[in-house]
Amino acid sequence: MNQEAPPLVAGRKSPWELNPKTKRDDMTQETKFCHNCGTEIDTEATTCPNCGLLQHDKALHTEQKNPGLAAVLSFLIVGVGQIYNGQIGKGILLMVIQVINFFIRIFTLFLWTPVYLAVFAYAIWDAYNVAKKINSGEIEM
Hints:
By secondary structure, the chain is mainly α. The chain has two domains: 7-61, no CATH class; 67-136, no CATH class. Helix content is 45%, strand content 4%. The protein is built from five helices and two strands. Strands 1-2 form a two-stranded antiparallel ribbon. Helix 2 packs antiparallel against helix 5 (113-136) and helix 4 (88-107) packs antiparallel against helix 5 (113-136). The longest helix is centred in the last third of the chain and has 24 residues, at 113-136. The chain starts with 14 loop residues before the first helix and ends in a 5-residue tail after the last helix. The model has no long low-confidence stretch (mean pLDDT 81).
């Protein structure tokens, strides 16, 4: 009984090279490769046992977010990038915090500016990184 080895991705070892005790007859279950680290996993696996990344079928996960757009939206209006990413509660919370920070900044003669800028920078950074994680499947939306 001559079974063909599954196709390999360049630089990755087959299951038989990783575990020489594995018999080809035991490998009849369907497998796929992790989207992140390339480890061969069961097709029904929801996370990779090697790197822990959530596995999504491309057909199920079609909505991609643009990290640049998310960052620009948060730059223009704090929290809008989060809303674009589907994190509506976080976006509204950041908007409310920034409105409060704005008035505190006025009443403290701009001594509160570092806090205002920190929230502003966080909103941009968070919108960009969350969009990237949504696209990679680390965060489900």
